[in-house]
Design a protein that fits this description.
By secondary structure, the protein is of the alpha+beta class. Among the domains are: 87 residues; 41 residues, no CATH class. 54% of the residues lie in helices and 9% in strands. Strands 1-2-3-4 form a four-stranded antiparallel beta sheet. A hairpin with a 6-residue loop joins strand 1 and strand 2. Helix 2 packs across helix 4 and helix 6 packs across helix 8. The protein is elongated. The termini are far apart.
Length: 184
């Protein structure tokens, strides 16, 4: 049983395919959750089984294994949990640098660049951008491009050849008239 895993279409979901062609789809642990579980794993070996059950129940999105197969193939759940831990964090520098290089390759993808630019210019959260449609992404990206490059067009106050139309001003906002008003 030599599983391989890869990122699924949704970059927050991973797929493990086992030699027997069964698959397990899972999500990584959140960072704080990872740190707590790694600490528990390291300091309380008697909790390993409960930690495995917790991770498997909470983070496995779907599987082609039946319950009977999971019980028959000892090692499937620990293998999945090991992969969840592996994808969720790191404990040594060599692995960190390998994962960081992989993340840099992913980040250099055009779609991730677009997301980063929109987020940095407009202070959107990445999750907010993930919920946008492609037309919204294009518009925000074009707007971000204008803001970031300082090429926002300067609009005239009135169309060429027409005099600026004054709107009805219901309030007189000049300082002199404001100071001369008496309270009513």
């Amino acid at each position: 049983m030599t599983p391989e895993f890869e990122s699924a279409k949704d970059h927050h979901t991973y797929v493990i395919e086992f030699d027997d062609k069964n698959v397990v789809v899972f999500t990584p642990l959140e960072w704080g959750e990872y740190l707590r579980l790694v600490d528990l794993w390291a300091n309380y070996p008697n909790l390993h089984l409960q930690i495995e059950e917790y991770i498997y129940k909470k983070h496995v999105v779907s599987t082609s294994y039946t319950d009977e197969e999971l019980n028959a193939f000892a090692g499937t759940i620990p293998t999945v949990v090991s992969m969840v831990f592996q994808i969720s964090g790191v404990n040594d520098l060599e692995t960190l640098f390998a994962q960081l290089e992989e993340a840099r390759n992913t980040a250099s993808d055009l779609s991730h660049n677009i997301t980063a630019i929109i987020a940095s210019v407009f202070h959107y959260k990445f999750e907010e951008i993930d919920k946008m449609t492609w037309p919204e992404i294009l518009l925000r990206f074009a707007q971000a491009e204008l803001v970031a490059t300082g090429t926002l067009p300067q609009l005239p106050l009135a169309p060429a050849g027409k005099e600026e139309k004054k709107s009805k001003d219901y309030f007189n906002w000049d300082k002199e008239s404001m100071m001369s008003r008496k309270p009513t």
